[in-house]
Amino acid sequence: MHIGIDLDNTLLDATSSHLKYYNIASGLMLTSDDVNDFYLYRLYGWNKSEADIVYDKYGYQIHWDSEPFPMAVDIMNELYGQHRVSIITSRPVHFREVTEEWLSRYEIYYHRIVFTDDKFRECLRSNVDVLIDDGPHYVEEFAHDDKPLILFEQPYNSFFSGNSVYRVSNWLEVKSVLISWSIHWGSGF
Ligand SMILES: [Mg+2]
Q1: Is 145 a catalytic residue?
Q2: Using an 8 Å Cβ cutoff, are 148 and 129 in contact?
Q3: Are residues 77 and 169 in the same domain?
Q4: In terms of domains, do 127 and 137 share one?
Q5: Looking at the whole model, is its pTM more than 0.90?
Q6: Catalytic pick from 6, 13, 133, 134?
Q7: 10 vs 26, 49, 130, 181, 184, CA distance in Å?
Q8: Which of 4, 30, 58, 168 is deepest in the core (most CB within 10 A)?
């Protein structure tokens, strides 16, 4: 299989480090209980360009401080041993260096990394069999084309579903879904 894997709030906890630095920038004290929007900056009342200024200032620290979700690293590396693994992130490409350094800090292996907003097109172009992501805006595109999407559960995506969309809440569940497909498709996990 060729597996596409998102970083923020799929492989790692991006919410905590975003809240930490957005709280510093705003003087507010939001917690993860307040998060109900994929676009976290909207909780602070910022528009996109105000958010971009904060993100440019703190983005390096936000990404460097993020921690992997439980079991994510071990299961990622198991996947790397048996499948083709592409990290597909919508982070701006100028955060490539901190992103790659972070991946190497946690000894996470992958075959390639792509920085793009248009993950659906990227998955078609590079023959990705399944994308693992938390973004609610991908659900409709993938479901419409019957393309498999493993949706990592977050408070802002709980109302989204589709035929080819499989919800998971942790990395053991990711592994279970992929094992069941491998059996179905006749290849080893
Ligand atoms: Mg994400």
Answers
A1: no
A2: yes
A3: yes
A4: yes
A5: yes
A6: 6
A7: 26, 25, 14, 20, 25
A8: 4
